[in-house]
């Protein structure tokens, strides 16, 4: 069933709900089966090995001064938490050490072995497929494991608390998948244990199905007879299977090590587990201290200068996509949510040394294709980003393109009319940021001054017959290694009869436009040719991949966004179609679909 006409969105101040759920039983679209999705929901999983989270560090002598002062909450928004990978042969003690690491550092433990075993226990299609490989001591196909890991890593707890990845990557291809997503650990711990010990550890290993605790018949016998009676071996722990797993581990280990050579720490795992942990603990504490040192910019919330930053700091934890996005004008909460989401992603990218960035955000108020477009929202977003970097002591130049063309054809895109004046007269806070740390300028090489630290280009766009790219290119050349951030650029080719567009070859223009990487992307998804109802959303925040969400009505009358799939690259409209229809990836592509409109977007 096709949704209602556009007119419902075209009137402002209209709450467009209640509306028909496009994927309700009356819809001709089948609802995707969760069991077929390659990015399964993990809500049903519990971490077998995970004992407790310990995030309160107030009395901990190892805590840094900032932590003891209770500033770790602010840090969560400004510095990246610890990211650790632990690797080693089967039974080298990864799970055992992970229990201790989680207790001490409060990281989110993500064990592919546990995720897979939990999936197997649900009897899902993925679980059954994985079971064949696991029971044979083989690696489960990458497409299954990678989708699981990237989906789990994109959860907010992993982003804010930090993560401990156990059992992934297990092949060069898996390591490359993470590299492509720019997911890198701070430390890569490798547990080193001789082969003969490993085999004995596997054969003697027993699991408590009630607590998830790992025992060994001789090394770590169960505490009571009652526990002993319920212990079970793992099906892949026979001597023959362990040997096969060990062989596969050795074949892959070298190639993976090459990816993490500079952060690899080898630890002798053939010692009592407490001694092994003592080494890991000091390693991670050191890594944590170094991270904290890098963020001397850690400030308590009340010290933030700008109004906009207060808004951003109040949303340290990403709580999922906000609902009621069809409510126009957007509420302050919704606007602040998006400003904050963009800001955090942009900060992460700049802190990682990325210099050619773009933000693309198309909520209704920021989508010039919609008549609810609001220039004020774009200006507020720019101000939040500029003030945030200014707050960190950077000199930011906010640039708007000037009038283009000549004579009667002179002018600027309608979307930008008056923008510069609005920026000049905006409230830039009580601390005199404008004129000191924030300057307003135009797009062009001669605007690049020596003292500028970074540049924000407001919606640079080509107009028919007039190409902004030459000016941008000159400006970025002059900026050199300083960050240039494009906010909602529109750089598609618009050739005009004047020939001005041809000053730089088409290929070169497109290549230049593509040289900016997304640090943020958000787009609402609709049925082909409509702007109502919202079917879902696609979101990407640096350094994570693209997350595809489906909007669903909830029985209580509200709505929510549920994650359908994740992608390392921006998905095509076919990828999105397939995910909504619950089809596996890499199928023969269709020519069209409900979401065919997206082909014009991507
Ligand atoms: P997974 O569960 O990850 O298995 P593994 O890597 O083979 O590791 P183990 O769980 O066997 O051992 P561990 O190092 O955690 O040791 P533990 O602490 O338990 O993966 C299982 C399967 O899933 C794989 O075979 C594969 O099929 C699939 N899979 C997983 N990830 C995948 C991926 N990324 N891609 C594709 N497929 C994937 O300790 C072992 C024993 O030793 C215990 O009994 C313990 O009590 C004892 N012990 C521990 N430390 C000590 C010590 N210091 N001294 C004495 N004994 C100790």
From TrEMBL:
CC per GO annotation: chloroplast
CDD domains for this protein: ADK (cd01428)
Annotated region (Disordered), positions in chain: 293-320
Residues annotated as domain DUF1995: 335-577
EC number, as in UniProt: 2.7.4.3
InterPro entries cross-referenced by the UniProt entry: Adenyl_kin_sub, Adenylat/UMP-CMP_kin, Adenylat_kinase_CS, ADK_active_lid_dom_sf, Chloroplast_ADK, DUF1995, P-loop_NTPase
Protein's UniProt name: adenylate kinase
